[in-house]
Amino acid sequence: MRQAGGLCFCHPLNLTSATAPSSHQHHHHHPTSLHKPFLKLSRKTHEVRPTAWLQHVCCAGPAAVDSYKHEAHPPPHHHPHHHHQMHAEDIDLLQWMHNQGLPPCKIQLKEWITHNGMGKPIHYVAASQDVHAGELVLSVPWALVVTLERVLGNETIAELLTTNKLSELACLALYLMYEKKRGTESFWYPFIRELDRQRGRGQVAVESPLLWSSEELNDYFTGSPMKDIVLERLEGIKREYEELDTVWFMAGSLFKQYPYDIPTEAFSFKIFKQAFVAVQSCVVHLQGVSLARRFALIPLGPPLLGYKSNCKAMLKVMGDHVQLEVDRPYKAGEPIVVWCGPQPNSRLLLNYGFVDEDNPHDRLSVEAALNTKDPLYQAKRTIVQRHNKFTIQTFQFYKGKEQETLLDMLPYLRLAHLSDLEVLDSVFAAEGPVCPASSCNERAVLEQLSDYFTNRLAGYRTSLTEDESLLKDMHISPKKRVATQLMRIEKEILVRTLEEIQKFQDQLPNDTVSPCRGPYVPKLK
Predict the structure, then answer these.
(1) Which residues, at least 6 apart from 73, have a Cβ–Cβ distance to it below 8 Å?
(2) Parallel, antiparallel, or unpaired: how do β-strands 337-339 and 523-524 relate?
(3) According to the lineage, what is the superkingdom (predicted)?
(4) Could you read off the pLDDT of 264-294 as tens digits, one per residue?
């Protein structure tokens, strides 16, 4: 048996009537990036014959995975000899899907040449003919969709695993790792091969930052919260990896027939991370279905289907198919896009490796906390809770709505700065930059905010002007380009917030005294 080279996952071991452990959520599919096979198959592994349902389960190209029948016996057309014919190395993903029951559709797979022509081109889904808004272009049979219900063979087990140790993503990733181990014997070989081609790259041929080196994270995200977001997610993936064996034993009856090595012995953390990232980039979050079917791998879904923040088209379950109706007209050959959900660009980059400049959901978080050493801490705590706030409160500064967030934040900071018990209750009634408590307190609040946002902006290595120049450079690396796009958006939010703070400061009375910062100012981070 040959290994399907370069996929982020290793060829999955055969699971018996159930596959991988439980997992996590997502809407897109991205291949993981590896240039070499991750595991060497032992002779024993080669001799293992796939279990019945595994012969049906598959993971199609951009977010696809076949679903197996619930019966324990393979259907006649999945006889081993036919199986090999079906997985000839030259079989096209789309043709393979048609062979498995995909109805005629109005899409085609096209190639996009990557940066400087380096590496394999990536595939994307495009219209095969002119289509109108509202037109059905794709209808994937439920038998070609992989969910936890299908992977684990039992909805109860699926729910058990997803509500305890593992996320849906970890479950699906483990399944694909075992399935990849089977190489061309796998029913899903055409999809796994497509994932190898994508190598974990998103729709702009960039891997998720979860697969970037430490040096790249430091170089490209200095000053940005993105670096901490990446490191936090990596810690979460590590915890998932450490729980794989637990799930293996929890679902022991499903693996009895074929005693493979337990997950952490069969796969290194590096391989699991690559598989996890590939799955998170292609999983689709289906609506109106049970928990065990909610997170699905769908052939010809993302990342072959591009994502767009202002798109309204979604993959939807209609009867025994998952269908796509477009929300806009397309000319033949134009790439087709679907909605990615209300996700900020930090998440789009983390999960799918791209930044959408038209994204209306971008935001920066600011955490404000009452000083616990303040003698008035308990009194202030009672007041903020009465106004549906917390002693540690996060404020989201959305792009274009910076003033709204400032107006929400000002009463909290006014209260935090005050040292006079008699006027504590009055500050939440004040609006704008005029506070009845104290004019010097008001200037202290605005000054603290101004200093905070100024320092945060100064933490970046480049200015907005320099970012604009970088993005005009056609030779900039894809990773640096998406990182610069993200940080430019972050800086724009910071700059606009500082402008709003300055407007508030300008509205203060001319006779306002110097700011009077007390000894227990709130903490901002």
Answers:
(1) 52
(2) unpaired
(3) Eukaryota
(4) 888 899 999 998 998 888 899 999 998 888 9
Among 310, 309, 223, CA closest to 494: 223
Alpha-carbon span 171 to 151, nearest angstrom = 8
Per-residue pLDDT, 21: 32
Residue 431 near residue 414, CB atoms below 8 Å: no
Query: How many of the other CB atoms lie within 10 Å of CB of 443?
Result: 22
**Which residue do the tokens 């959305």 mark?**
398
Q: Are strands 306-308 and 392-398 parallel, antiparallel or unpaired?
A: unpaired
- Cα separation of 229 and 184, whole Å? 37
Name all contacts of 287-290 with Cβ < 8 Å and 24+ positions apart.
287/314, 287/316, 287/317, 288/316, 288/317, 289/317, 290/149, 290/155
Measured CA angle at 251 (ends 250, 253), to 5 deg: 120
Specify the DSSP element, H or E, that contains 316: strand 315-318
Instruction: Tell me which amino acid residue 503 is.
Output: K
What pLDDT score was predicted for residue 327? 96
In this structure, how many other beta carbons lie within 10 angstroms of the beta carbon of residue 436? 12
Q: Which of 456, 449, 411, 402 is nearest to 432 (CA)?
A: 411
* Residues 17/53, Cβ–Cβ less than 8 Å: yes
Query: CB–CB of 163/343 below 8 Å?
Result: no
CA distance 320 to 83: 24
Question: In residues, how long is the chain?
Answer: 525
Reference 451, options 375, 523, 383, 386; nearest CA is: 523
Q: Tell me the β-bridge partners of 154.
A: none
Q: Which of 512, 517, 511 is nearest to 418 (CA)?
A: 517
- What would the DSSP string read from start to end of 381-418? HHHHHHTT--SEEEEEEETT-HHHHHHHHHHHHHHHH-
User: How far apart, in whole angstroms, are the C-alpha atoms of residue 175 and residue 266?
Assistant: 12
- Which residues of the chain, if any, have pLDDT below 50? 1-88, 253-254, 257-258
Backbone region of residue 341 per phi and psi (left: phi > 0; alpha: psi in -120 to 50; beta: other values) = left
